[in-house]
Design a protein that fits this description.
It is built from 6 helices and 6 strands; from the N terminus they run αααβββαβααββ. By secondary structure, it is α+β, with helices and mostly antiparallel strands. It has one domain. It has a 6-stranded mixed sheet with strand order 1-2-3-4-6-5, with helices on both faces. Strand 1 and strand 2 form a beta hairpin.
Amino acid sequence: MNYIFRKIIKEISKKINNKKGLEVFAIHRAKFEGWLKVEICDILLSFTQEVKVEYGKNGKKIDIFFKYNKCGYYIELKTINTSYKCNYVVRKNKPITNNLESVINDINKLKNLKNGNKYVFFIVFPLPDNKVQSFEDNINFKEIESNVNKIESFNGKFSNNVPFKIYIGEI
């Protein structure tokens, strides 16, 4: 994985762990994609000045676009809440399949772009260690894996110790 995404992962993991307000989202299994978009833009602006959000036309907008070393990068973001049992988290049924289908839709949107470096970036929470294999065995996760060139994942925790995992797929 390139320097840019290593920096994003490191910084986002720290921000999630240090942001007490995100505990509320973790406890209630609530999505926080808007916050994530702002924070990633903040990280990107530390090393490039060309960052755009909701980039594109005709309803085919990409969450984040930026340029670095004359290369264009497109990122689609998702936060995926699960129904896995976890300490400190309110029990709710959350449809993992629907969430993963939205990532597949993002991959297809990115594949339709003619050029540039394309990535899906999604955070799955709560995702206890003993449920990672179950999550990754989901048929829709397998479809994600088969539609990206490479996927990497990174573990993290909210400030209240609710576990999450960040996945980055290169298209």
